[in-house]
């Protein structure tokens, strides 16, 4: 075949193919266009989100405190320990932020909220075409979900359960509410309990109740109880007058500022009167007795108000505020949970600005014994206690390691305060329920007035259990019973139940 004939044949084939293709497009667009438009109107395309498998939360030993289970054919979040871990783990629910896809559940409180991004993973997508009647036709695009990260906490579930039951049982006899905190000096939170509590599973649609369900049977009864406030986490959000547990601050501060030594003696006069104002010691007011000449060790052991009035006076308000803040009061601890309070540290500037009043010596006296306008969270008192006994201040952490600061405390002064704290829970000290552990642990009791004569004081005890030779591993237990009475009689027995868990 000649070259010209071959070229002509190819051209004819191309022309025919073009003509067929053009006629097909013309037919589909002109003659059949309306038909396809009608079909399109009968279908719709939408995106379906595929929720990622949420990460599991466990204690340090791998025991689940938040997990995923199948209930009635649906995969739901489940909190196996209900009210025991509510203050720590929190719960998930529909997001309130309009910028978040409403089909995806998010953490609302606790660790579920704090670590939402790590736990949630990345949702997948399916783009589907459906008929107007909702019949699924074809899956057009798919992006697989990426599971969330599992979270291992510092929590020790056995300690958490013991603390919860000890507090809950105690509140059946006395008190409005309570807190138990158990941490290590280096900031690891082993237990965090706030009572009254609730079963977090109540907030899970199509969920399952825990065996630790508590008294509230539905969300409505839970949310409407404004007296018990079970959703309020008192451990980190509650502001309370610390009372005599605060005396560890002026004791250490007066030693560090060289206002006193271990051998300095102050006479217990039973009371100090300034004009129309009287500042008494609890022993005189309750039993009509005084202590005689006492040093700082005995003052801590006996929680002697007169000694600390005088120590506060010697320090001066500026030093007292400085050391309070240095030991972690008046600011957030930095715990990895939402909703933490800063507490409140009063000062002369604040008083003059707020009330137009000068700061008087009586205000210093009140502050030196943990009363007056001073407010602290149980978490702050726990961190302060750890800082006093160790000389390092570590922010409490439920996940991972803490950030710690060396406070450069004089070793002799630190050991002097420890000697006083050891005497508190030994025969003759104020923490009489702990005498059986005398010489083995360190304590400070507190009884903080919060209202009039008709209101019971808040009962406090903060305690240190030496575990091993490294002070960073020592365990710090802080107990608060709101409107419970005396710290020695009410808070100390709760703390006592923690000791056998660590002291072998």
Describe the protein in words.
The structure is a single chain. This protein has 504 residues and is α+β, with helices and mostly antiparallel strands. It folds into 2 domains: 47-152, Alpha-Beta Complex (Penicillin-binding protein 2a (Domain 2)); 180-200 and 216-502, Beta-lactamase (3-Layer(aba) Sandwich). 36% of the residues lie in helices and 20% in strands. The chain has 19 helices and 20 strands. The protein has helices at 3-31, 33-41, 82-89, 110-114, 116-120, 157-171, 219-224, 234-237, 248-256, 282-287, 296-302, 305-315, 317-326, 348-355, 361-368, 378-390, 411-424, 487-496, 499-502; strands spanning 43-50, 57-58, 64-71, 74-78, 92-93, 106-107, 124-131, 136-143, 151-152, 177-184, 189-195, 266-268, 271-274, 277-280, 292-294, 392-394, 404-406, 442-448, 458-465, 475-482. The strands form 7 sheets. It has a 5-stranded antiparallel β-sheet, with helices on both faces. A hairpin with a 4-residue loop joins strand 10 (177-184) and strand 11 (189-195). The longest helix is centred in the N-terminal third of the chain and has 29 residues, at 3-31. The chain is elongated and about 120 Å long.
What do we call the CATH topology of the largest domain?
Answer: Beta-lactamase
Class from helix and strand fractions? alpha+beta
Strand content: 15-25%
Q: What characterizes the major β-sheet?
A: 5 strands, antiparallel
Q: How many DSSP E strands?
A: 20
State the helical fraction. 25-40%
Helices, by number, come to: 19
In whole angstroms, the N-to-C terminal distance is 106 Å
Question: CATH superfamily of the largest domain, called what?
Answer: DD-peptidase/beta-lactamase superfamily
CATH class of the largest domain: Alpha Beta
Which CATH architecture of the largest domain would you pick? 3-Layer(aba) Sandwich
* Number of domains as seen in the coordinates: 2
Radius of gyration: 33 Å
User: Which overall shape is indicated by the principal axes computed on the Cα atoms?
Assistant: elongated
Q: Trace the largest sheet across and list its strands.
A: 11-10-20-19-18
Q: Residue ranges: pLDDT <50 for 5 or more in a row?
A: none
Mean pLDDT: 90
